Amino acid sequence: MRASYTDRFEHTLDEKRRLTIPSEWRDEGYEQQLFAFPSKDGCLKVYPNTWLGALQERIAHLPVTDPGRKQIEAVAGMAQKLVWDAQGRVRVKDSLLAHAGVDRAVQMVGALDHFEIWEPGRRESLVPAGATLEEMNI
Mind listing the pLDDT tens digit of every residue in the chain (138 residues)? Predict the structure, then answer.
């Protein structure tokens, strides 16, 4: 069974601007190698290595001139590999933190197959509050 990113965590970057990945997301079954991508939503989306591997497999058969492949390659050029240390800390590049508007306070939000890194005020202004399981339209 694949690990799922759920819950929401409030953290603060330390003096070296490192972020601690929640211990729940470092348990057995979770991958230590992650990739952070800037999102058009104004946050960072963080995916495990197997997600990126599956994406690579999907484009492997495409010609190098394929527009979809070119778009994925461009996004890959903006991503950062993250591997946490013994204390669960990662150092996210300043350019990615700036994209998300993060200075010190951070909100990490599970999104099942990935998690998102937000500046708390930005997320609260964009995400509707009070969603319930019964209201999901799937």
Answer: 578 999 999 999 999 999 999 999 999 889 999 999 999 999 999 999 999 888 889 888 999 999 989 998 898 899 999 999 999 999 999 999 999 999 999 999 999 999 999 999 887 777 666 666 677 666
pTM, two decimals, is 0.88
- Its CATH architecture, for the domain 8-126, is 3-Layer(aba) Sandwich (3.40)
Put the strands of the sheet holding 115-118 in their side by side order.
Answer: 8-12, 105-110, 115-118, 44-48, 33-38, 80-83
Domain boundaries, the chain: 8-126
